[in-house]
Amino acid sequence: MESALKEQRDGESVVDLSTPVGGVEDVYGEDCATEDQCITPWTIAVSSGYNLLRDPRYNKGLAFTERERDAHYLRGLLPPVISTQELQEKKLMQSIRQYDVPLHKYVAMMELEERNERLFYKLLIDNVEELLPIVYTPTVGEACQKYGSIFKRPQGLYISLKEKGRILEVLKNWPERSIQVIVVTDGERILGLGDLGCQGMGIPVGKLALYTALGGVRPSACLPITIDVGTNNEKLLNDEFYIGLRQKRATGQEYYDLLHEFMTAVKQNYGEKILVQFEDFANHNAFELLAKYRTTHLVFNDDIQGTASVVLAGLIASLKLLGGALCDHTFLFLGAGEAGTGIAELIALEISKKTNAPVEETRKRIWLVDSKGLIVSGRKETLQSFKKPWAHEHEPVNNLLDAVKAVKPTVLIGTSGVGRTFTKEVVEAMASMNERPLIMALSNPTSQAECTAEEAYTWSEGRAVFASGSPFPSFEYNEKLYIPGQANNCYIFPGFGFGLVMSGTIRVHDDMLLAASEALASQVTEEHYAKGMIYPPFADIRKISAHIAASVAAKAYELGVATRLPRPADLVKYAESCMYTPNYRSYR
Questions:
Q1: Angle CA(296)–CA(566)–CA(274) in degrees, nearest 5?
Q2: Catalytic: 207?
Q3: Catalytic one of 136, 580, 584, 587
Q4: What's the pLDDT at 14?
Q5: Which residues on neighbouring strands pair with residue 159, listed in sequence order?
Q6: Among 320, 341, 462, which residue's Cα sits nearest to residue 413?
Q7: 136 is catalytic
Q8: How far is residue 438 CA from its own chain's centroid?
Q9: Burial 468-478 (b: 16+ CB within 10 A, else e)
Q10: DSSP letter at 304?
Q11: What whole-number distance in Å separates Cα of residue 209 and Cα of residue 221?
């Protein structure tokens, strides 16, 4: 690492603040590589006194040392006791666990982030399995529904139709210049909850917290954005506490002109290597935006590509339990939206890559059911464009149970957003055809899951391999403990995005998604398989993300779209050294 030490004063090394000292542009000393170096708590000027205690990036609460209290004019502003970060973490976890309502835990975590950023991420990283359902799905869904009521301080940027023609100016209002990842939503399809308008901001905020905690992207490099074009949710329009535009949602040319201005301004302000993740856009806009900008910008849609990659990883890992190769299996989806078709396409690409068969041929092993029944060639004229590749020759089938009996799938995947659609009859039909049926109920939140883990195991007499989108508790059946897998996008997008950032990649390629899936599947061990798991435990997520980032970066270098040269010799070690660490730093 290039040293930032420029001169000596009174025998002490002084850092040139204009020089990156960690990974790329680590101006605040956030990466693991700089953990042992002293830093200066500065914004425009060096933070000190009361302002330092109110700055969440640098505030350490009672953990300021005696020397730091003298150097930064903190005497008398804090009680005399000096705490440790570990003791602070213990105290806060005890406090959070006293709340019975998950939303109260969410609010407590957000308040912590606003006053002590490093402690927030320390809690989240060290207690990831406990706190992940709080800061993200399922609790974040309820938080978005009530965002107007719990809103205290703005997080991120709000860009509405009022800012049309001035979006570049709005982006320049954000205090950070070295942004690496933007997560943006228009709030039209938040989880399985529908149109939440401006209150969808909870999703970009939550996603970026996970980019940092799970993937190691610096908080200072993250920017959550909500595009507010109105809402068609009458309940919100009539809610006195609603924080967004009180108008019907803009559509058509007006909508796409605003999004084009936004994408142009982002590239102009932050450059070619800024990653823009589209989040929770409605199907028709999600596919259109991804297709339009994937050749000109570094863009990623987690609902289409991230979901596909994490599900493919589970499928690859499950082959150890199911037997055979991916090309030997038949797949049936309930749900043909952006998640379902995105997963289906990535499966087809992986089979094509392994067998050298054209993707048009490998798609024939994959069937989709939408609200009107099995997608077949006879319906082609009335189908949306993204469904047409999945319209195979077959007689019409009107419901899922009949589709299961007709197609005889080995793998059943739910992305419908409709709860309890994998009925007892459906699961029993899957179990009657397969020794080990793979059942993936992926819809979020928990209430929208196609079936529960308990139902899948019970109705299949303990033979099902099960995974879901939201977490389910372990379940004992016939004296055997089953641990449900969670096909959570959090396995993929933090490491995937970090791999793009650390390699300076300028475009996302499907081969990178396949590399991410294979890297995740490789982290499942024999010990995990013995418990019926097809995903590794979340407790290892930082290690998993480093391996995914390294695999994605390696593929980017191979494809010639990585700009950070020379290529590091050991990409895993490089990823680990560039990861954000939440441990308190010593201040000069």
A1: 30
A2: yes
A3: 136
A4: 42
A5: 227
A6: 341
A7: yes
A8: 24
A9: bbbbbeebeee
A10: I
A11: 11
Chain mean position to CA 428? 33
Output DSSP code: residue 392. B
What whole-number distance in Å separates Cα of residue 309 and Cα of residue 509? 12
Q: Which of 60, 105, 122, 207 is catalytic?
A: 207
Residue 125 in 3-state DSSP? helix
Alpha-carbon distances of 14 from 8, 31, 568, rounded to whole Å: 6, 19, 28
Nearest 10 degrees: Cα torsion 370, 373, 377, 380: -50
Q: Angle CA(396)–CA(450)–CA(104) in degrees, nearest 5?
A: 150
Rounded to an integer, what distance in angstroms lies between the CA atom of residue 55 and that of residue 345?
Answer: 46
Return the structure tokens found at 158: 């709000």
Which residues of the chain are under the pLDDT cut of 50? 1-21
Residue 23's pLDDT is what? 65
**Angle separating helix axes 283-293 and 338-355, nearest 10 degrees:** 50
Beta strand 411-414 pairing with 438-441? parallel
- Bridge partner residues of 368 (DSSP): 333
Asked if 183 contacts 299 with a C-beta cutoff of 8 angstroms, the reply is no
* CA pair distance 415, 421, nearest whole angstrom: 10
For tokens 């019907």, the residue is: 248
Residue 28, both tokens: 């605040």
Q: What is the pLDDT of residue 513?
A: 97
Calculate the CA 48 to chain-centre distance: 35
How far is residue 580's CA from residue 225's CA, in Å, rounded to a whole number? 22
* pLDDT for the residue numbered 42: 76
**Strand-pair partners of 392:** 376
Q: Residue 300: what are its φ and ψ, rounded to 5°?
A: -150, 135
Q: What is the pLDDT of residue 390?
A: 97
Beta bridge partners of 505: 562
C-alpha neighbours within 13 Å on the C-beta side of residue 223: 25
Name beta bridge partners: 480. Answer: 477
Q: How far apart, in whole angstroms, are the C-alpha atoms of residue 145 and residue 133? A: 16
In this prediction, residue 371 carries a pLDDT of 94
- For every residue of 134-164, DSSP letters joined together read HHSTTHHHHHHHTHHHH--S--SEEEEGGGT
- The pair of structure tokens assigned to 135 is 């800061």
Yes or no: say if 31 and 578 are a contact pair by the CB < 8 Å rule.
yes
CA pair distance 225, 232, nearest whole angstrom = 20
Query: How far is 300 from 318, CA to CA, in rounded Å?
Result: 26
Task: Please give the model's pTM, rounded to 2 decimal places.
Answer: 0.89
Virtual torsion, Cα 232, 236, 239, 244, nearest 10 deg: -90
Residues 6 or more apart whose CB falls under 8 angstroms from that of 198 comprise 147, 158, 160, 187, 226, 228, 231, 242, 243, 244, 245
Angle at 39 (CA atoms; ends 38, 42), nearest 5 degrees: 160
As a whole number of Å, the end-to-end CA separation of the chain is: 21
- Backbone φ and ψ of 427, nearest 5°: -65, -40
State both tokens at 331: 């797949």
Block residue for tokens 């009335």: 382
Nearest-CA neighbor of 484 among 516, 517, 462? 462
Diameter of the chain measured on Cα atoms: 85
Neighbouring C-beta atoms of residue 7, cutoff 10 Å? 9
Work out the angle between the directed axes of helices 307-322 and 338-355 (0-180°, nearest 10). 50
What length is written for the chain?
588
* Pair type for strands 275-278 and 222-228: unpaired
DSSP 8-state secondary structure symbol assigned to residue 539: G
Task: Give the whole-angstrom CA distance, residue 242 versus residue 198.
Answer: 8
